[in-house]
Amino acid sequence: MTKIVILTGAGISAESGLGTFRDAGGIWTKYDLGEVATPEGFARNPALVHEFYNARRKNAAEAIPNAAHAALARLERAMPGEVLIVTQNIDDLHERAGSTAVWHMHGQMTRARCAACGETWDAPMAMRPDDPCPACAAPATRPDIVWFGEFPYHMEAIWEALRAAEIFVAIGTSGSVYPAAAFVQDAGRAGAHTLELNLEPSETVGDFAEARHGPASEIVPAWVEEMLRC
């Protein structure tokens, strides 16, 4: 049975209205990332960090999965083999489209975590600095997000999956952020066929055996159709 590992980045959700880091005028441009996406920023001003993620959580809740998300969910259902999505995204559009094998290496906006004891739970739509942890009652609630300077989730399992993959596909990612930028090299060394599906060539496009470029809502469903005809 074919084993496919798919890495997705912000580009797959852009057509659902969720901006990437590089979008001019997007939500990321209105904040200093050092203040809202680092442990140090949270320690300095937790209210600002919660304001930022409350806005992003509302934005994500209003977004609708697009054709690319739906195509990957269809691939998982119909493909005779294993299809794993490793996503850099913190939205839940893959799950809402129907995908079940999804690993969020940067955490999830829909989850909260206690900075004191590490407990995690479903986040309310709006979070505040004085929200008590349901486990230890400490007012140390933070989004369950991997910030700059923190170690991504699931990394040991991801490396194992990459080395067992027959096909590795990167969708909607710039190829500029490590460790995800190294996934193609690791999968390729282990013998996987590697494919980039992106709006434009990424910084690591030369590491892929094959690349196709265009809107994710067009090129991802087309690739899935090809895979299901094989």
Structure write-up:
The chain has 230 residues and is α/β, with parallel strands linked by helices. The chain folds into two domains: 141 residues, TPP-binding domain (Rossmann fold, 3-Layer(aba) Sandwich), CATH 3.40.50; 83 residues, SIR2/SIRT2 'Small Domain' (2-Layer Sandwich), CATH 3.30.1600. Strands 3-2-1-7-8-9 form a six-stranded parallel β-sheet, with helices on both faces. Strands 5-4-6 form a three-stranded antiparallel β-sheet, with helices on one face. Helix 4 runs parallel beside helix 8 and helix 6 packs across helix 7. The longest helix has 17 residues. The chain is elongated and about 55 Å long. The two termini are 13 Å apart. The relative contact order is 0.18. The model has no long low-confidence stretch (mean pLDDT 93). It is found in: Cytoplasm. It is an enzyme of class 2 (transferase). Its EC number is 2.3.1.286. Keywords: Cytoplasm, Metal-binding, NAD, Transferase, Zinc. This is NAD-dependent protein deacylase.
What are the defining features of this structure?
230 residues; single chain; SIR2/SIRT2 'Small Domain'; 6-stranded parallel β-sheet; 2 domains; alpha/beta
SSE map:
Elements: E1 2-8, H1 33-36, H2 39-44, H3 46-62, H4 67-78, E2 81-87, H5 93-97, E3 102-104, E4 107-114, E5 120-122, E6 141-145, H6 155-164, E7 167-171, H7 183-189, E8 193-198, E9 210-213, H8 216-229
Parallel strand pairs: 1-2, 1-7, 2-3, 7-8, 8-9
Antiparallel strand pairs: 4-5, 4-6
